[in-house]
């Protein structure tokens, strides 16, 4: 019951967060579809414009229109209402490709390295994730490997206290690889659990940052075969197309096994979720819709489509 209320609350928050994207997809697209008597090229052109305005990207828009045209040819699209349903279903289908929730084994050490450019929400997201995973029964340890900013360690410390989980830290300006080394040594002598590593988003140069992250990864793999088990890239939804470029860069330089998309609340660029599913072959693990501890949820294609297309209850 609580889980259900929780889910409902989240979908409501997601819906209000996505208000601007919803307007385009729910209201504007409906106007186009329902206002048109015939399903023809003019309708597809208008639809295409609305979709691109919703920031779902040209690739998705193209794929959707093609699939709709195919349905027309096969006479599966008799009325505008059916076309509207097809829009939802196609989006759901595409989003499902990137739906792959994180599955964490409970009988061994599982390490998660969290990376991303500065300000995307890494530290905040780790705090929320600690709470979620602890709630699922995992032992959780946080690791402050962003030693570049002194305040970063204190920020993570506050989240660790809030979630009542231990934090492994060293002095500011310590070598992040040394902090990670300590953390894995400690983890190996303790009980199985999840070790989540916070990293810097900015160093003096981008090259420095990439080299530091690579070094951390190497140290981890040497200390614990298979580590890091998950490299989570945190992306800020409000940066739209830029988020895609960041994902490509981190994927090619470091290797990324999962994505977290933050700040979906209040952006008009909510369609970037579709774009990510379309243009990147990386699972979207979680989405963030606010700054509160409960504002992070595993990404579910169905929930997302529901939040985008279900009209508000009156
Ligand atoms: N509205 C909103 N704000 C968020 C969300 N996630 C994070 N934030 C905010 O984004 C800001 C930056 O978050 P941090 O967690 O400090 O980001 P970071 O990636 O760790 O930043 P650096 O450590 O500087 O690289 C904070 O003010 C967060 O509260 C979200 O889903 N929605
Ligand atoms: Mg941080």
Given as residue ranges, the uncertain stretches (5+ residues, pLDDT < 50) are none
Strand order of the largest sheet: 3-2-4-1-5-6-7-8
The portion of residues assigned to helices is: 40-55%
The N- and C-terminal alpha carbons lie at a distance of: 23 Å
Question: What coarse outline follows from CA principal-axis ratios?
Answer: elongated
Quote the beta fraction.
5-15%
Find the count of extended strands (DSSP E, 2+ residues): 8
Radius of gyration, taken over Cα atoms and rounded to an integer in Å: 21 Å
Ligands, ions, cofactors: guanosine-5'-triphosphate, magnesium ion
Structural class: alpha/beta
Order of helices and strands: HHHHHEHEHEHEHEHEHEEH
Average pLDDT, rounded to a whole number, is 89
Q: Tally the helices: what do you get?
A: 12
Strand count, sense and barrel status of the largest sheet are: 8 strands, mixed
What would you note in describing this structure?
Helix content is 54%, strand content 13%. α2 (19-35) runs antiparallel to α5 (80-96), α5 packs antiparallel against α12 and α6 packs parallel to α7. β7 (284-288) and β8 form a beta hairpin. The protein has 314 residues and is of the alpha/beta class. It is built from twelve helices and eight strands. The longest helix is centred in the C-terminal third of the chain and has 18 residues, at 206-223. The two termini are 23 Å apart. Strands 3-2-4-1-5-6-7-8 form an eight-stranded mixed beta sheet, sandwiched between helices. It is elongated and about 70 Å long. Bound molecules: guanosine-5'-triphosphate (GTP) and magnesium ion (MG). Guanosine-5'-triphosphate binds next to α6.
């Amino acid at each position: 019951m609580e889980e259900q209320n929780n889910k409902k609350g989240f979908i409501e928050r997601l819906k209000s967060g996505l208000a601007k994207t919803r307007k385009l997809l729910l209201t504007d697209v409906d106007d186009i579809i329902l206002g048109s008597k015939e399903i023809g090229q003019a309708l597809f052109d208008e639809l295409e414009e609305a979709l691109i305005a919703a920031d779902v990207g040209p690739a998705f828009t193209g794929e959707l229109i093609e699939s709709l045209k195919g349905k027309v040819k096969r006479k599966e699209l008799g009325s505008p209402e059916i076309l509207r349903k097809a829009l939802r279903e196609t989006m759901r289908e595409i989003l499902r490709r990137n739906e792959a929730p994180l599955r964490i084994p409970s009988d061994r050490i599982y390490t998660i390295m969290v990376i991303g450019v500065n300000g995307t929400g890494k530290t905040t997201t780790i705090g929320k994730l600690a709470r979620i995973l602890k709630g699922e029964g995992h032992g959780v340890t946080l690791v402050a490997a962003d030693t570049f900013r002194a305040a970063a360690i204190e920020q993570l410390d506050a989240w660790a206290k809030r979630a009542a989980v231990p934090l492994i830290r060293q002095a500011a300006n310590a070598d992040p690889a040394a902090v990670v080394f300590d953390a894995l040594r400690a983890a190996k002598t303790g009980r199985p659990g999840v070790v989540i590593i916070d990293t810097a988003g900015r160093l003096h140069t981008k090259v420095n940052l990439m080299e530091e992250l690579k070094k951390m990864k190497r140290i981890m793999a040497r200390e614990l075969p298979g580590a890091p088990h998950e490299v989570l890239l945190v992306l800020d939804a409000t940066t739209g197309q830029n988020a895609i470029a960041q994902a490509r860069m981190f994927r090619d330089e470091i290797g990324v096994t999962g994505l977290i998309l933050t700040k979906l609340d209040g952006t008009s660029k909510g369609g970037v979720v579709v774009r990510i599913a379309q243009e990147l072959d990386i699972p979207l693990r979680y989405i963030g819709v606010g700054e509160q501890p409960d504002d992070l949820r595993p990404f579910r294609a169905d929930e997302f489509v529901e939040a985008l297309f279900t009209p508000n209850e009156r």
